[in-house]
Specification:
The protein is built from 18 helices and 14 strands. By secondary structure, the chain is an alpha/beta fold. The strands form 3 sheets. It has an 8-stranded mixed β-sheet with strand order 4-5-11-10-9-12-13-14, sandwiched between helices. The chain has a 3-stranded mixed β-sheet with strand order 1-3-2. A 3-stranded antiparallel β-sheet has the order 6-8-7, with no helix packed on it. Helix 13 links the parallel strand 9 and strand 10. Helix 2 packs across helix 4, helix 5 packs antiparallel against helix 6 and helix 13 packs parallel to helix 18. The chain is elongated and about 110 Å long. The protein starts with 16 loop residues before the first helix and ends with a helix. About 40% of the residues are buried.
Length: about 625
């Protein structure tokens, strides 16, 4: 069977993360499994080992409505169809029976074609709301198969031609096709409307292959379905552990569906770690870089450069001896993320450290210069908010039945039947009922904008200190040198803690440095967990970052994981705001990416000089909202 696990995306297209999360929630609801995840591959797949369903890239680059309905049809077919109503044992027995037959790949693909037709009809009847998506699926795939049918016939690829022909025959009828001496096949194909189970599909496939086999000399070269390329491996593993989920015999107790395979796989592997959870792929690491100027690698070459992050999905594990001493971290007590921070972060270990105050004379001089430049802004903003808070206080209350006696209202005892000559003073000012958490991207790509980032963070710190608002400030990063498939060490460096109150930590801010990678979804969940422990009514989580998530095995999944982390935080009452730090104007692709992750709460700085201005505007907007809500 062809292995689709090696599908590679050759362009830099980004998925709509929020839409993919909606698809994921739909798939989980249809399958009744909260562990399912959704990704995108060449063909639709179901992977028990990774608890994933894969949508097909076939639907890309089409009209928005067709692309959406097409992807929905993939989900309906897999989660509501193959998941619950496909007989795995019957299919695996069929695969075993066809190993010694001619055209084994064509035989397997034909069964899946028939099963797709059966399950589309079945799901449409069970869930009438799926009919529109399946209609789009039939029309689009039929048009594609018609086009390929002519191409494959011209190239004399008759096995591919047979699949194209039979798909159109099943979904549009045989009257729309040329006979080509296929009258017997047409007659036999009518049996597809009577198929009620996987075993019926297999029986029909045997009958059709008896007629097709004499006409076809070469087996399929192209894959049309990759649904179960990994299922047999999962079943082998489960049964080797003694958890026979695919029983035979009594129909009432037999467990023969994909749902049971997934459930049993998860049960047997949840607490295990090992090589069976990883796909072993060979990759070359001989060249110096992946740039356009890269030369052909040679194993005899000396190591001349050491990279510092930037790879979107790297797996290379450099030897510790090759790591510069300045890059080796002094590790403290590590904590394991486990399942509390999302499935993509279950191998993360992390530690929390306190960033030491800088003692460098030049950096302290820069701190003084930054504060001198920003002092008028901080002072003006503080006065503005103090006035707004004063206006929100309850005004002096008069005409009360009790309180302090107003000497000017003594006449009321004579003139009024119910005199109210008392008053109360203004209510004392209350601190703003808000808490802030600031996450600062500590990846290597921040190196060229560190000074501007320090200025923005310092402004953030000074404004909140003056207003006595509790706030966290943390630099986060992942150690790219130490990251492996079983452990991805992350570090949170404290610049200021909620417990520090109005303590001045400007010298810590000036000690900020760039490190390696950034695992944004994990950092957001970590900070959200801290903010949820606070009693303040308004909770804000700001993240200063200069790009998309980039860490060990955290490329496309990182975008989805970060979007999911943002949605979880928002659901728990935490407002997540993103400031995109960049040295040049962001591209439309970048704007679209951050919109999918953060919704309408992402702000882009078009120039490094604007970091502080945008930070000030963000704070003004958020604090004004808090004051007005008081």
């Amino acid at each position: 069977m062809a292995e689709m696990g090696r599908f590679i995306q050759f362009n830099n297209e980004q998925l709509n993360a929020r839409q993919m999360l909606q698809y994921e929630m739909l798939a989980r609801a249809l399958a009744g499994n909260k562990e399912l995840a959704i990704n995108e591959r060449q063909l639709i797949e179901m992977n028990p080992q990774q608890q994933k369903l894969s949508l097909s890239v076939f639907w890309r680059h089409r009209e928005e409505a067709i692309m959406h309905l097409g992807r929905l049809s993939d989900i309906y077919l897999m989660a509501a169809g193959f998941w619950r109503s496909f007989d795995v044992r019957a299919y695996l027995d069929y695969v075993d029976d066809t190993k010694n037959e001619r055209l084994p790949r064509l035989r397997r693909q034909l069964v899946l074609l028939i099963e797709e037709f059966r399950l589309v009809e079945y799901v449409s009847k069970q869930r009438p709301g799926t009919a529109e998506a399946f209609d789009v699926r039939r029309r689009t795939y039929s048009a594609t198969h018609r086009q390929q049918m002519n191409v494959h016939r011209q190239k004399q690829l008759y096995a591919e031609y047979a699949i194209n022909y039979l798909y159109v025959a099943a979904n549009e009828g045989t009257l729309t096709l040329p006979t080509d001496g296929f009258e017997e096949i047409h007659w036999q194909m009518q049996g597809i409307y009577d198929v009620k189970s996987t075993k019926d599909s297999i029986a029909l496939a045997w009958r059709l292959m008896n007629l097709i086999e004499p006409r076809v000399q070469k087996d399929l070269k192209q894959n049309f379905y990759a649904l179960f390329d990994t299922v047999s491996d999962a079943v082998t593993f489960i049964e080797s552990k003694g958890a026979t989920c695919l029983a035979t015999g009594d129909k009432d107790t037999a467990k023969e569906t994909i749902e049971e395979v997934f459930r049993a796989w998860h049960r047997e592997t949840k607490e295990q770690e090992g090589a069976h959870l990883r796909l072993e792929l060979g990759r070359g690491n001989e060249g110096r870089s992946l740039s356009t100027d890269a030369e052909e690698g040679d194993a005899q070459n000396d190591v001349s450069e050491v990279g510092t992050g930037g790879d979107t999905d790297h797996e290379a594990e450099p030897k510790k001896d090759d790591i510069p001493e300045t890059k080796k971290l002094q590790r403290g007590t590590k904590k394991h993320a486990g399942e509390a921070f999302g499935d993509d972060n279950r191998h993360v270990t992390y530690e929390e450290t306190r960033l030491e105050k800088t003692e460098d004379a030049q950096q302290l001089s820069e701190l003084l210069r930054f504060r001198t430049e920003q002092e008028p802004l901080v002072k003006a903003m503080t006065l503005e908010f103090q006035k707004q808070m004063a206006q929100k206080q309850v005004a002096k209350r008069t005409h009360l039945s009790y309180g302090r006696l107003n000497s000017r209202e003594l006449l009321q005892f004579v003139t009024d039947e119910r005199p109210k000559p008392f008053y109360k003073k203004d209510a004392p000012a209350k601190p703003l009922d808000a808490v802030f958490g600031l996450l600062i991207d500590g990846s290597a790509s921040m190196l060229d904008k560190l000074d501007e980032t320090k200025q923005a963070v310092l402004l953030f710190h000074d404004v909140l200190r003056k207003l006595a608002i509790a706030h966290d400030m943390v630099c986060f990063y992942e150690d790219a040198y130490e990251a492996t498939s079983t452990e991805q060490p992350n570090t949170f460096e404290w610049l200021h803690r909620l417990e520090d109150g109005v303590q001045d930590d400007g010298a810590r801010i000036m000690a900020l440095e760039a490190h390696e990678d950034n695992r944004d979804g994990f950092a957001i969940r970590w900070m959200a967990k801290r903010l949820l422990q606070r009693d303040e009514k308004h909770r804000f989580l700001l993240i200063f970052s200069d790009g998309e998530p980039s860490a060990f095995r955290y490329a496309t999944n990182g975008v989805l994981d970060t979007a999911e982390a943002v949605m979880e935080a928002e659901k728990n009452g935490i407002s997540v705001v993103h400031l995109f730090l960049n040295t040049e104007q962001p591209t439309d692709e970048q704007r679209h990416l951050f919109a999918t992750i953060y919704g309408n709460k992402s702000v882009a700085a078009e120039d490094v000089a604007q970091f502080s201005d945008i930070t000030l505007r963000l704070l003004r907007k958020l604090i004004r909202y808090v004051i007005q809500s008081t």
